[in-house]
Specification:
Blueprint (H helix, E strand, L loop, with lengths): L5 H6 L13 E7 L10 E5 L2 E10 L4 E10 L2 E10 L9 E10 L4 E11 L7 E10 L1
Parallel strand pairs: 5-7
Antiparallel strand pairs: 1-6, 2-3, 3-6, 4-5, 7-8
C-alpha cells in the first residue's frame, strides 16, 4: 500500500485491523495542514464516534500516512503508518498533524492508544496514551 493517496487507503476495508464487520471502524483519517495553533493531542467520544487528534514527527517532506484501528480488551489502538511520498532527505524533520474518526464503537469505557510507525526511516515506533474515553 506504499504511496497510496489517503482517500484510496481509507476506502479499502482491508486496511482495518478490526475483523468484526459490525465493530469499530475507521470512518476518516485526515491530515491537518499547517494548523494554527497546532492541535493539542486529545481523544473524545461524541455522537457514537471516537475522535483522536494528534501528531507525530516525520523524517522528511512530503510525507503521508495510512491508519487502521482495532479494539481488544478495553483498548482502542489506532496504528498510523507513515511513508514518504517523494524524495526524503533525512535531515529535514517535519510534523504530521492528523484527526482520526472511529465509528460504531461499542458502549463502554476504553483506554485509547495511537501507535506511530515509519516505512522509510530507522526510527522506532512510538505511542501516545490518551487516557480513557467513556462511550454511553
Amino acid at each position: 500500500m506504499r504511496n497510496l493517496p489517503l482517500a484510496i487507503a481509507l476506502a479499502t476495508s482491508s486496511m482495518l485491523a478490526c475483523t468484526d464487520p459490525t465493530g469499530p471502524r475507521l470512518v476518516a483519517f485526515e491530515r491537518l495542514q499547517n494548523p494554527n495553533p497546532p492541535p493539542t493531542p486529545q481523544v473524545f467520544g461524541v455522537d457514537g464516534q471516537v475522535i483522536i487528534q494528534a501528531s507525530f514527527p516525520t523524517p522528511c517532506e512530503p510525507y503521508d500516512a495510512t491508519a487502521a484501528v482495532s479494539v481488544d480488551r478495553g483498548v482502542f489502538r489506532l496504528i498510523v503508518h507513515g511513508d514518504a511520498t517523494g524524495g526524503c532527505p533525512l535531515d529535514v524533520v517535519g510534523t504530521f498533524f492528523y484527526r482520526a474518526t472511529i465509528g460504531d464503537p461499542p458502549v463502554g469505557s476504553y483506554a485509547v492508544r495511537a501507535i506511530h510507525t515509519y516505512a522509510d526511516a530507522a526510527w522506532p515506533a512510538d505511542s501516545v496514551d490518551f487516557g480513557t474515553v467513556v462511550l454511553p
